[in-house]
Amino acid sequence: MILLSVIALVIGTAIGLSIADVDHIFPFLTHRAAITHSFLLPLIAYLVVREREPWAKMGVVGFCLGMIVHISFDLFPRSWSGAALIHMIGFGALPPTASILLICISMVVCFYLVFLLVEKRTDLIAGLIALCIAFGMASAHETVFWWALLSIVVTLVIALLLPVKTNIISLVQSMLKG
Ligand SMILES: [Zn+2]
């Protein structure tokens, strides 16, 4: 069962890292579409697995973490295309401030969903390892490192300050005590 959870976590993280840019494929989506570059897909995935088996939850934990890493780097694009970053169907390009806000809120929501899904200390540790590996792998193809890392740390702290169902603070404390 643990092996299944690890496999689901790895696959979920890989999907989360790459799924946002499938907007390239669809002719009705502009690159950096809000549909794929926001908390929407992780939220749907959360709603699907929240009553399911632990391994399925870990798959979505990975999905959320992969998405966080992907959009954290999209906060700092190599070439800022035009005046906007995120595109919304029926609206067009969002202004830069709204785009940045949407990405940051999405990162907080994704971390929050992770907190709702993790049940054990080991889930949290596995998630943390997956986040670090995903960030390390993604950063190899990017020009920024510290700014993206800072955005992850800041949104993580904000998510930690939100009231959560699972007592994530006590899980963290028990992790620190060892
Ligand atoms: Zn992207």
Task: Produce the secondary structure layout.
Elements (H helix, E strand, L loop, with lengths): L1 H17 L21 H10 L4 H21 L12 E2 L3 E2 L2 H22 L3 H19 L6 H16 L6 H10 L1
Antiparallel strand pairs: 1-2
This protein binds zinc ion (ZN).
Zinc ion binds next to helix 3.
Major sheet summary line: 2 strands, antiparallel
Strand order of the largest sheet: 1-2
Radius of gyration: 16 Å
Overall shape: it is globular
Q: State the end-to-end CA separation.
A: 23 Å
Describe the structure concisely for a colleague:
By secondary structure, the chain is mostly helical.
Features:
mainly alpha; 65% helix; 7 helices; binds zinc ion; 178 residues; two-stranded antiparallel ribbon; single chain; 2% strand
Structure description:
The protein is an all-alpha fold and 178 residues long. The chain has one domain (2-177). Helix content is 65%, strand content 2%. It has seven helices and two strands, in the order αααββαααα. It has helices spanning 2-18, 40-49, 54-74, 96-117, 121-139, 146-161, 168-177; strands at 87-88, 92-93. The protein has a two-stranded antiparallel ribbon. β1 (87-88) and β2 (92-93) form a beta hairpin. The longest helix is centred in the middle third of the chain and has 22 residues, at 96-117. The chain is globular and about 45 Å long. The model has no long low-confidence stretch (mean pLDDT 88). Residues 20-21, 32, 37, 70, 74 line the site of zinc ion.
